[in-house]
Specification:
The complex is a heterodimer of chains A (324) and B (332).
Chain A: E1 6-18, E2 26-40, E3 45-49, H1 56-63, E4 71-76, E5 79-80, H2 86-89, E6 96-99, H3 113-124, H4 132-142, H5 159-171, E7 177-181, H6 189-206, E8 209-214, H7 217-223, E9 226-231, E10 234-240, H8 241-246, H9 251-259, H10 265-270, H11 301-305, E11 311-313, E12 316-318
Parallel strand pairs in A: 3-8, 3-9, 6-7, 7-8
Antiparallel strand pairs in A: 1-2, 1-4, 4-5, 9-10, 10-12, 11-12
Chain B: E1 2-15, E2 18-31, E3 35-39, H1 46-53, E4 63-72, E5 75-78, H2 84-87, E6 95-98, H3 112-123, H4 128-141, H5 147-150, H6 160-172, E7 178-182, H7 190-207, E8 210-215, H8 218-224, E9 227-232, E10 235-241, H9 242-247, H10 252-260, H11 305-308, E11 313-317, E12 320-323
Parallel strand pairs in B: 3-8, 3-9, 6-7, 7-8
Antiparallel strand pairs in B: 1-2, 1-4, 4-5, 9-10, 10-12, 11-12
Helix pairs in contact in B: 3-4, 3-6, 4-6, 6-7
Classes of the chains: A alpha/beta (324), B alpha/beta (332).
Amino acid sequence: MATPILEVTNLAKFFPIQSQGIFSRVKGDNKAVNGISFTLNAGETLGLVGESGCGKSTAGRTILKLYEPTSGTIKFEGEDITSYSASKMKPLRTKMQMIFQDPYSSLNPRHTIGSIIAASYEIQKITPENGVKRAVQDLMERVGLNPEHYNRYPHEFSGGQRQRIGIARALALKPKFIVCDEPVSALDVSIQAQVINLLDDLRDDFGLSYLFIAHDLSVVQHISQRVAVMYLGKIMELAPTEELYKNPHHPYTKALLSAIPIPDPILERKREQIILSGDIPNPVNPPTGCVFNTRCWKAQEKCRTTEPVIMQIGASQVACHFPD
Amino acid sequence: MTLLEVKNLSVGFPTPDGVVHAVNDISFSIDAGETLAIVGESGSGKTVTNLALMGLLNSNTAQISGTARFQSHTGEIDLLGIDPNELQKYRGQDISMIFQDPMSSLHPYFSIGDQIIEAHQVHNKVDPEVSKERAIELLGLVGIPDPASRITSFPHQFSGGMRQRVMIAMALVNNPSLLIADEPTTALDVTVQAQILSLLKDLQREFKMAIILITHDLGVVAGAADRVNVMYAGRIVESANVFDLYAKPAMPYTQGLLDSVPRLDRPHTNRLSAIPGQPPSMISLPDGCSFAPRCSRISEVAGSKCLTALPELTLRGDHHSARCFIGEGVRA
């Protein structure tokens, strides 16, 4: 088998919490990502799902070295980039890009979209074959924007169009790997479907690999080959998409799937729903043992004391003492 | 019994570029105890409709016309024609509202108890202790553990889901007959959304109140609504019982919306069917049907009528009406 494009082992990212005052010291850590491992193969999309605060965005940013990892290793195309400096990362940035959630705040309002997309060439000092303008207009056309709008400003575009600008910018340097951080969650459903289809086409045309971060399991299902479910900084279950949706083994995956309303009144009113009690605990003091034990209906003494190790069930990897 | 009957409501906002026609001549009614969902995408006018009914739009900047007859505890009133000071008596008493963002809709400076007690004191001349008892009762009812001690907590001490519960407690403190819930779960995670939706359902039964549920999520509508109004570009384009709407949508926009939702209960095909294009500018609405520029079925209507004439809302079945030339006059 070919080497995976990305290999993440025991990755952790803690944010220190400082006490107030002159002699500030570290009071504790926000354990945003607490030891996650996975691989991503070339041309594959891995969905990373979870609720707000589970660490999925932090994981995405740490992998791109936008945050300095606390521990663990990140290998990109077999190369260990964990301790690379910013200058050493710069040439690699042509291969790894990011698409952001908010199409309003991720584009500079004072730059034309032409210069926003062209900035990548400028920073990397790359001159495309037929000149920058031509390259940018080709990209705009590819993502479904009118190339004549080259000199317009972001405020002249709708949310869906802005997200297309963000996608064009990410594609400019012909990357191999893109972290998509909730790329459609700010969009209306009818527009959301357009953007998902576009991302799908681009992956096939450009041979891209995506780490697709989202909170919406039904969106992830459409675009991913495999899905990892995160909770409080840890991966609870990682499985091929079909398997995860058909046979969820982890109670949290089950609860998450059952919480999503089905747009069909007959089915929606018939089905049994698992309603979790309580909220996500504070990641500064995560529960001992299994981090999900405070909300799990199957929790027993063992869950409160011993952290479950990841075990293989069929094609799925599950971190649970009592999987289904 | 009809609780609220809205007729010919229009709301426009004058801007230097022209008037933004946020809501265009909409009429609907809601019965006591039922749940009416208003669905639509951003900018379709669903929120503005309800802000107008609550008297929360500034009359200096908004042009509002139409009538809204509401059965209040003192008899019938017109929500749109009544004096703003007079409306104060009914707002929070007969009609309450919960908002989308539980982070910004509670006052950060006052304890949640104070905020709920105030809502009760405004409408009831009772001892503050009585209001406090009522606040504790409500907080318990919405599932805040240990309400008697949490009543002195401040909003920042609660999570998003808990704050939304506090908002609901505040809205229900005077036993309203109508609750307007504007995207009550949009800012929440799915597992918390499920909690809040089931709570609202239980409370509706207990308080026997009608709910206007504003949302963009067709999944939430399927589980919670009795009847649905679909809005597009400031107009109601389809109105039906929830089962009829999902089983036989009559308007191509409704159909498109249903098709573009990624669904977990169906085997996934790799492509989602998207609606091409984007909603029209609300300053210069198209002459004909507002959805025509995005509609895939306009060729089915002779003489490009969709681009020149505005279809009326016409009946398609029992209490099912749609605004489309296709299938007009055909009763299911």
